Amino acid sequence: MPKVQVIIPNWNGLPFLKRCLYALVRQTYQDFSIVVVDNGSTDNSIVWLREHMSSVYVIVNPTNRGFAAAVNQGVRASSSEFIATLNNDTEPEPGWLEALVRAAESDDRVGMCASKMLFADQPHIINSAGISIDPVGIAWDYRGGEPDQPDQEQGPIAVFGPCAGAALYRRGMLEEIGLFDEDFFAYLEDVDLAWRARLAGWRAIYVPTARVYHFHSATLGESSPIKSFLLGRNKVWLILKNYPMPWLAYYLPLILIYDLFAVFYAILARRDFYSLQGRVVALSKWSIIWQKRSQVQSLREITPNEWRKLLSPLEPPWKVPKRYQHLRNLASMRKQTVPAG
To answer: Quick check: is 220 in a domain?
Structure first.
């Protein structure tokens, strides 16, 4: 078994998948194998893989099981020391995997490594350099929207966790804390996993030399109703599962205020009622998630004060939308470049 297993979930993304796989072939680090987990594609992805990428191990699902379940299938189908996850709409640079592996090998308590994800449409702009999270449980892309200035960056630095669109995980960590939560289906499942890992005392670092180009939201689109629903639902589950006491009790009033602000902003600014619907569904199943909470908290190795130090500063609620302005700018740019008719 090679040292790294690269897992790529795929759902009707053949044009992007081709670019991703061809980029992996050009990696400077070659001690890896590839698993593509196909979630019921109808675009001939399976036929193409079998004809042109015979070295790739393919797992075929009859229906779309979501990102979390697909990655878990790939993890269970391997025994490699490290697991790399890639969105099918990514294109890693040749030195991507080598940079991640070298960083992970520097410390056996590093359980997660984040890549520098750049917008494929705007390669001079950072899409994500990992995950940031604040005291009210709002997660966003670390350095998202900033210009890429590689000559001004030092070596790996600590972050809360990686975006699973391009990340490296240590199998030993996954065996301890568990895999992705399949109830999340997609979105915030990487934040959930990173949160569990940090509570258990594992480290996460951002590796600026591990560069990946990302066709952001190529599968569902930035304003997809499904995406809004899943983000709304999973946000509630994320906090119910993972937020440690006594900080949960302390911050709960602010969490509710900020979340109400987010719901009203979605409705008034985008006529988006799906995020509210997701939250309602999440609360209707709170007992199931609360049962998971006991298992998560039983693995906690850090103190409440150590947890508090992992969080980014709290900002006023009216400033929160600015964290995602670069995503709205990208969506607007794409609309302007779509040919008429």
So the answer is: no
Model pTM score = 0.94
**DSSP line for 22-73:** HHHHT-S---EEEEEEEES--SSHHHHHHHH-TTSEEEEESS--HHHHHHHH
DSSP 257-282: HHHHHHHHHHHHHH---HHHHHHHHH
Whether residue 169 is found in the same domain as residue 259: no
- The helix/strand/coil state of 106 is coil
Q: Which domain, by its residues, includes 156?
A: 4-214
Residues 206 and 232 reside in one and the same domain: no
SS3 158: strand
pLDDT tens digit sequence for 84-120 = 999 999 999 999 999 999 999 999 999 999 999 999 9
**DSSP assignment letter at 147:** B
Domain count, the chain: 2
